[in-house]
Design brief:
alpha/beta, 5-stranded mixed sheet, 14 strands
Length: about 300
């Protein structure tokens, strides 16, 4: 049995926190991954994992061996990358996840150009606006737009800032008035991300300090385009990344509200599992996205 495949299975189980998630990530059955890890433990004569019905975690020996496996597999992947770059183009599949609006407006044409450059690769692009666990759902690379958050199981590579703006239609502002202070948002219809049953808080900073207002409105959604279009129709004030509303602002279908107050800036990040940081395919895609969007971040601010 391939020792490297056993090590990859063991590392994936540790990273994923279980056999089922590791199996999805590796594209194998749970029993196949389990057999690989058991074979590795038998070969070594040690127990690498604590197993229970609810959780799988490395033993003390397993944790030390995990660190060495990550180093060894990284060296192997680095060697493979060197050979691939010298003697041919990368091959295989990449599973990529991204938010819907950013995906359709910017990422889709970028991926098309990426595939022109690397025709032997296949990209499976999934777009949605819910929070995705890349490891649990088996994505090689995930693009996320959020406030930066550290994670031990994922590398996070910033691509570009994503500045947000408050905006509303001239019709709405003429009818209900233009707010002059963040706390006045409590009396306006605010179109926000999330669910009706949840309190939504908008935090804004200005020269006179930071303010947080609990907002409610006629509509909430998990999609920025839905909120933008509702704002254009005069249903309320919305807080969105500027790249979503830029055209509407230029066409004066929307106008900025409270221009001297600013929400916390979001970041457009690319995330990928720590045990894959030297994968040729992933490194090529991440480098491509960094060059594509990093140099043009001002267009998305």
């Amino acid at each position: 049995m391939d020792k490297f495949e056993q090590m990859r299975a063991f590392v994936q189980v540790v990273v994923s926190g279980g056999f089922a998630a590791a199996a999805r990530q590796m594209g194998q059955s749970r029993s196949a991954v389990n057999k690989l890890v058991i074979a590795l433990e038998n070969d070594l004569g040690v127990q690498l994992l604590h197993r229970s019905t609810r959780v799988v975690s490395p033993t003390e020996t397993g944790l030390a061996f995990y660190d060495r496996c990550v180093e060894i597999l990284a060296d192997v992947e680095e060697a493979e990358r060197s050979v691939t770059q010298l003697h041919g183009s990368p091959k295989g599949r990449l599973r990529l996840n991204a938010p819907m609006t950013f995906g359709t407006m910017y990422l889709a044409p970028a991926i098309a150009d990426f595939l022109v450059q690397y025709p032997d690769l296949q990209v499976e692009l999934t777009l949605n606006d819910r929070f995705v666990d890349p490891i649990e759902e088996g994505f090689d690379v995930t693009v996320r737009i959020a406030e930066p958050q550290p994670t031990s199981s994922l590398f996070v590579q910033p691509l570009a800032p994503a500045r947000r703006v408050l905006c509303a239609s001239p019709t709405y502002l003429e009818k209900y008035g233009i707010p002059t202070h963040p706390m006045e948002l409590r009396s306006h219809s605010c179109l926000h991300y999330g669910q009706v049953a949840m309190e939504n808080r908008w935090t804004l900073r200005g020269a006179d300090g930071e303010y947080t207002a609990i907002v409610r409105g006629a509509l909430c959604s998990n999609n920025g385009e839905v909120l933008r279009d509702a704002a254009i129709r005069g249903l309320g004030i919305t807080l969105l990344p500027r790249f979503i509303v830029e055209t509407a602002l230029q066409e004066e279908a929307l106008q900025i509200v409270l221009p001297t107050y600013y929400p916390p800036e979001l970041s457009i990040d690319v995330l990928y599992p720590v045990n894959r940081h030297l994968s040729v395919k992933i490194r090529l895609l991440v480098d491509f996205l960094r060059e594509r969007f990093g140099q043009r971040s001002e267009n998305r601010s």
